[in-house]
Design goal:
2 helices, mainly alpha, about 150 residues
Amino acid sequence: MSYKYKFQKILNLKENEKEQALGLYQDSVKKFTIAAESLYELLKKKEDLEQYQLNELASGLSVHKIRHYQQFIFNLEKSIEHAQTLVNRARNTMAWYEEKLKECNIEVKKYETLKEKSMNLYKQMLNEIENKNLDEFSSQQYYYRGGS
């Protein structure tokens, strides 16, 4: 008599859902990382440009170049705002998938706990049957040996 968990198909389904959720979460982490790195690069470029502009101002800079740098910085700031929006969206998406993954983990854990309890009951039942059989066997041996 072998043990068969009655909710095994559901457990398998929940484990598959968990694996899918994990994959989606990992994809969202990658997208967040890419967006964050892009934002970092833009911020770094702006910082470097501002530092370069300060150095150029110290050595004398034409009004035309000042306007050019200011326009470039303005465009960088717009790109930074857009990148920040993308990073926030990616962060929210990542958090949403993380929550879904947690929910899937909880569901799988519930069914694993039920399986463990069911397995323990099955083992207990087997032990009781074995003990009962051993008692019967001992009683029969005692009876066939003559009772004393």
